[in-house]
């Protein structure tokens, strides 16, 4: 259902407001460069700083520009089940093709609570749901067993796995079935992830290097491992540099270098990346041949 290079889109701001004109240009470029789907309003899109009106309008804008050429997977997660359901309703009305729903954070629910949360979400909407498991941010970690349980629900179609544990790919494949979509949430691990049965990556780096990331994903899906390894080596310093300070600060800075004029503004509590982070990004862009 979903595969390849899928950027978790940054949200551009100008003078404190969402810059919708830049979103339109950015989405057009992403599609032209080979991105196979788009994720607005994810972590990289600073979704925690968007109000409900902005959340909906960002999704609507991305859907409008995409024009059905690639799927739009809207970030809809929250630590509240009711809020998640409301965001999914808004995303459905805005024309999204699927929802990315993060494991509830802050509350630290049990496995029974996680199963109940995703069951309620799935029953509330016909939107396909991709579970987002990122324990480093949420503390809660959906287990392989719980994922296997909710994967039986018809609208729970896949996972964005940012656990950093490659063994999970095989364990989840056995628990959820070979048709369950597994997408890496870590650019630097995408090569091994796909070798073990993954089919793509919801990517930060694809914001900055969409063509290279699309070519890399295509090589892995074609089982052209020599080409994939070559591109992995070319992209690896950039994967690291984009997390050399709080994300998405380095990614926005990198975009301003490869697309001059792209706004680097962030919303508090995020601040501009450090000088050291910018130097790391510049070096990585040069290594990738993007400067």
Protein model, in words:
It contains twelve helices and nine strands. It has 291 residues and is an alpha/beta fold. It has a single domain, classed as TIM Barrel (Alpha-Beta Barrel), CATH 3.20.20. A hairpin with a 2-residue loop joins strand 2 and strand 3 (17-18). The radius of gyration is 18 Å and the shape is globular. The protein starts with a strand and ends with a helix. The mean pLDDT is 98.
Low-confidence stretches: none
Could you say how many structural domains there are in total? 1
Mean pLDDT: 98
Major sheet attributes? 7 strands, parallel
Number of strand segments? 9
Helix-strand pattern:
EEEHHEHEHEHHEHEHEHHHH
User: What is the CA-CA span between the terminal residues?
Assistant: 34 Å
* CATH class call: Alpha Beta
Radius of gyration: 18 Å
Which superfamily, in CATH terms, is the homologous superfamily? Answer: Aldolase class I
Task: Describe, in short, the structure shown.
The protein is built from 12 helices and 9 strands.
Furnish the topology, listing elements before pairings.
Elements (H helix, E strand, L loop, with lengths): L3 E4 L5 E2 L2 E2 L1 H13 L19 H15 L6 E3 L5 H14 L3 E5 L8 H14 L4 E5 L1 H4 L5 H7 L5 E6 L5 H10 L4 E4 L5 H6 L4 E4 L6 H12 L3 H17 L7 H10 L16 H14 L3
Parallel strand pairs: 1-9, 4-5, 5-6, 6-7, 7-8, 8-9
Antiparallel strand pairs: 2-3
Structural descriptors:
47% helix; 7-stranded parallel sheet; 12 helices; 291 residues; TIM Barrel; alpha/beta
């Amino acid at each position: 259902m979903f595969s390849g290079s899928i950027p978790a889109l940054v949200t551009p701001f100008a003078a404190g407001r969402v810059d919708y004109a830049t979103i339109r240009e950015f989405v057009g470029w992403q599609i032209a460069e080979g991105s196979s789907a788009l994720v607005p309003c994810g972590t990289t899109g600073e979704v925690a700083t968007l109000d409900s009106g902005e959340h909906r309008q960002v999704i609507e804008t991305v859907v409008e520009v995409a024009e059905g050429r690639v799927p739009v997977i809207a970030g809809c997660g929250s630590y509240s089940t009711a809020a998640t359901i409301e965001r999914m309703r808004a995303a459905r009305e805005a024309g999204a093709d699927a929802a990315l729903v993060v494991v509830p954070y802050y509350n630290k629910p049990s496995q029974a609570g996680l199963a109940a949360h995703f069951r309620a979400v799935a029953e509330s909407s016909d939107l396909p749901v991709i579970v987002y498991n990122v324990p480093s941010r949420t503390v809660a970690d959906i287990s392989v067993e719980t994922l296997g349980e909710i994967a039986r629900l018809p609208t729970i179609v896949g996972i964005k796995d940012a656990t950093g544990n490659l063994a999970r790919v095989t364990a989840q494949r056995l628990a959820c079935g070979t048709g369950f979509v597994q997408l890496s949430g870590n650019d630097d691990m995408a090569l091994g992830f796909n070798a073990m049965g993954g089919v793509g990556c919801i990517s930060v780096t694809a914001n900055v290097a969409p063509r290279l990331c699309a070519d890399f994903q295509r090589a892995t899906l074609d089982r052209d491992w020599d080409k994939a390894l070559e591109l992995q080596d070319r992209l690896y310093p950039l994967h690291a540099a984009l997390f050399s300070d709080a994300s998405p600060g380095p990614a926005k800075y990198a975009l301003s270098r490869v697309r001059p004029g792209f706004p680097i503004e962030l919303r508090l509590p995020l601040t501009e990346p450090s000088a050291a982070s910018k130097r790391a990004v510049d070096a990585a862009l040069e290594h990738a041949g993007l400067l």
